[in-house]
Amino acid sequence: MDLGIAGRRAIVCAASKGLGKACALALAQEGVHVTITARSRDLLEATAEDIRKATGVTVTTAVGDIATEEGRAAALAACPEPDILVNNAGGPPPGDFREWEREHWIRAVEANMLAPIFLIKATVDGMIARKFGRIVNVTSGAVKAPISNLGLSNGARAGLTGFVAGLSRQTVRHNVTINNLLPGPFETDRLRTTMEGAAKANNRSVDDEMAARRATNPSGRFGDPAEFGAMCAFLCSAQSGFMTGQNVLLDGGAYPGTL
């Protein structure tokens, strides 16, 4: 399927590796010129070069923390009129809510709720004026099924989900859609870091811990980031204009509910 977005411009946040990189690569494979952001200059530039070589599109980098005003300003300076915005940021750490102080909550909300909202605010009216816009927020499967030790993430991402539910119904008449993409377990550095902690707690090797985790998923495996990127690209396509305000879950069937 031709997604009909060749020549469009996109900002993809936190895209130097993992799911953000997968989204940027999938869009670039469709002919989208991408601006990618991350905090690490060296890794970001290496990723940009990988995408250029693989696709031939224009790849621009914006170094900075997207959770800060400076990081968002850098992204918008590099791509002031995006047709596509993929909001993404690393999740806050796990733990017991009794151990978290106000500053922990503020950091989580700034990264996983306010940063996407401010980027939407900065770009959505331009999309409306041009009669095309696709916004995808990378959130978490925990929005559907909260994870007990991820309270910071559960709270901040649920706030973003509520905000998007209202705004997305206002923008769709202008061919501007806003949807959320919810990953379950994918083969990323972040997942392996989480598994290292679990392995230590369970007194077994990381490989054994990962094998046990795979076995609990109905698919019997973890997701491939390329699968996630492909879904992101579809949500950004010309064909997805009748789909807005949705929470699209990619988790191998782990969530047991019907809704």
TrEMBL record:
Keyword Nucleotide-binding: no
Molecular function (Gene Ontology), one example: 3-oxoacyl-[acyl-carrier-protein] reductase (NADPH) activity
InterPro entries assigned to the protein according to its UniProt record, in alphabetical order: NAD(P)-bd_dom_sf, SDR, SDR_fam
SUPFAM superfamilies (UniProt xref): NAD(P)-binding Rossmann-fold domains
Keywords: Oxidoreductase
UniProt-listed Enzyme Commission number(s): 1.1.1.100
Residue ranges, annotated region (Disordered): 199-219
Transmembrane intervals: none
Family to which the UniProt record says this protein belongs: Belongs to the short-chain dehydrogenases/reductases (SDR) family.
Protein name per its UniProtKB record: 3-oxoacyl-[acyl-carrier protein] reductase
Organism: Azospirillum rugosum
